[in-house]
Write a structure and sequence with these properties.
Shape: globular
Number of helices: 8
Strand order of the largest sheet: 6-7-8-3-9-10
Number of strands: 20
Distance between the termini: 43 Å
Length: 351
């Protein structure tokens, strides 16, 4: 059992408040990601769970036991957690085996017990063949796995990860995302993961907590966050999106500055903001919104096209993005006029 319950947690550094009324429960064996831009409070929240920071207000419980509150503070080493930071922080003069064994040696466990536990964890993180190497003989991904193994060898109830993949190249990040998720499943532990990378959050999480300015914006599964964002910030931060403006009237939205309208059956009226994802935009021969192709970028499997909407010589500056398969030559060359159809969209009240 490794449930984390956070109730009304706030944190201020002097007059600067970085967390406000953070309340959420992370279930046993759940993989939860705190996602948001730099400065949103996600790392501060992780450090409060770990015990490296004391909350200004509120309470944190791990497995039902209060570890942080106005009257209680349990130090990090007594919380039964493992933590991996952005920097690998491996000992350069120690072998992989000794790096991973270090927490157990501090606990003064018997040598045979240390050998067994380290050997098992090295298998889990795929480092058994590298046990006698030193960090300078390892790749970045292997060094990150050393740090992960060191955090896991003490058999923590809870694993906290603070942007552990941000120093790796794109290929390594992708493979490590898979490996961390597989390790979490195999060991059956609870993971709280911090990142500003929405792809990492979508790929790894059971649930995502989207944060902004020290406050929770939305909590949900990756599908819920992507498909039903609660506000334009969440829609914009998770996935690709463009915004149009319009006027909701009855069963339609009149688009601002564009000769066109969209059907609408929602409850909003008046000025609205329309969020359109690229996968919901397609080329059409007639009945669409007119625009001019401003750019076409070939990405291998798809071509990323940017279309400026509006008719005639004076365009509106409102852009839509669409993805076409392959080289996307059906869009024409930049500067040509075309029509696009919006197949699905989200509508928010104008802020």
């Amino acid at each position: 059992m490794s449930e984390v319950s956070i109730s009304g947690v706030a944190k201020a550094f002097g007059e600067v408040t970085v967390l406000e009324n953070f309340t959420e429960t992370f279930a046993d064996r759940e993989f939860v990601t705190l996602l948001g831009p730099s400065g949103c409070g996600k790392t501060t929240m992780l450090r409060i769970i770990a015990g490296f920071e004391k909350p200004t207000a509120g309470e944190v419980r791990i497995d039902g036991k209060v570890v942080s509150s106005a009257n209680v503070f349990v130090p990090p080493e007594k919380r039964g957690i493992g933590m991996v930071f952005q920097s690998y922080a491996v000992w350069p003069h120690m072998t992989v085996f000794d790096n991973v064994a270090y927490p157990l040696k501090i606990q003064k466990l018997p040598k045979e017990e240390i050998r067994k536990r380290v050997s098992r964890i090295l298998e889990v993180v795929h480092l058994t063949p590298y046990a006698q190497r030193i960090p300078s003989q390892l790749s970045g991904g292997q060094q990150q796995r050393v740090a992960l193994g060191r955090a896991l060898v003490a058999e923590p109830r809870l694993l906290l990860l603070d942007e552990p993949l941000s120093n790796l190249d794109a290929k390594l990040r992708e493979s490590m995302r898979y490996e961390i998720k597989e390790i979490q499943k195999a060991l059956g532990i609870t993971v709280v993961y911090v990142t500003h990378d929405q792809i990492e959050a979508m790929a790894m999480s059971d649930r995502i907590v989207v944060m902004r300015g020290g406050r929770i914006q939305q909590v949900g599964t990756p599908a819920e966050i992507y498909q039903v964002p609660v506000n334009p910030f969440v829609a914009d931060f998770v996935g690709k999106v463009d915004f149009l403006r319009g006027q909701a009237e009855g069963n339609r939205i009149l688009l601002e500055g564009i000769a066109g309208e969209l059907p609408y059956t929602g409850k909003l009226s008046g000025r609205v903001k329309i969020a359109v994802r690229p996968e919901n935009v397609s080329l059409t021969r007639e009945g669409g919104l007119e625009g001019v192709l401003r750019s076409r970028s070939y990405l291998g499997d798809v071509t990323d096209c940017r279309v400026e909407l509006g008719e005639g010589p004076e365009r509106t500056g409102q852009m839509l993005r669409l993805m076409l398969p392959g080289e996307g030559r059906e869009a024409g060359e930049p500067g040509c006029t075309l029509q696009v159809k919006i197949q699905d969209y989200l509508v928010f009240p104008e802020e």
